[in-house]
Write a structure and sequence with these properties.
By secondary structure, this protein is of the alpha+beta class. It contains 10 helices and 8 strands. A hairpin with a 5-residue loop joins strand 7 and strand 8.
């Protein structure tokens, strides 16, 4: 069975990923998706989510498709911001308080943190996943603030090493760091680290 043009176009538009809901809007039935899966042309990676079998499974991109409000944060964001060389054991995401996602049940793979809706989008940037797809993470300054705020729940060595790395780099935006710290109500803590480590 060959892939029809509508499916091919959706896969090209969405980095080799197709949502059943998008397929339906393009006039593609679930039966067609199931048939392509049986033939090995598509692979079902989650409920209502398929990828081209020719594509490597990008866990970061798939995670954000499955949890649209999830922003990669803490250890995962440290890794992508080059503030830690340790690959995270679990993907760490921040979601708005009260937001529900099926991924919450998959505790072996994901670690979730909550924040208020009004600060959820503070410091979001797009970076490339290891497979070259756009994913959303928090920038360096938001990540440093988050890690200082939740230091007791994280690996203290990773956090301290990341803070030292950030403060030793040239060109980082300390004004932004302090602005975020003010919004997140940890300005004094951040200033203490800056005074000791700079």
């Amino acid at each position: 069975m060959k892939m029809n043009k509508a499916i091919s176009d959706l896969l090209n538009k969405n980095n080799g990923i197709i949502k059943a809901s998008d397929a339906k809007l393009s006039g593609i039935t679930n039966k067609e998706l199931q048939n392509l899966t049986k033939k090995g042309i598509l692979e079902r990676v989650a409920f209502g989510l398929y990828i081209s079998s020719e594509q490597f499974s990008d866990e970061y991109l798939i995670t954000q498709y499955r949890c649209p409000k999830g922003i990669f944060s803490y250890e995962t964001a440290l890794y992508f911001n080059n503030l830690s060389d340790r690959t995270p054991l679990k993907l760490t995401l921040t979601i708005p308080t009260g937001y529900n996602t099926r991924l919450l049940k998959e505790k072996d793979e994901y670690q979730f943190y909550y924040c208020k809706e009004d600060i959820h989008e503070l410091g979001i940037i797009n970076v490339k996943s290891p497979y070259g797809n756009d994913i959303r993470i928090y920038d360096k300054e938001r990540t440093i603030c988050d890690c200082i705020k939740k230091k007791s729940a994280l690996d203290k060595d990773i956090v301290l090493s990341a803070i030292k790395e950030y403060l030793s780099e040239t060109g980082n935006d300390y004004a932004k760091l302090l602005r975020y710290a003010e919004i997140l109500k940890i300005r004094d803590k951040v200033r203490q680290y800056m005074e000791v480590l700079i």
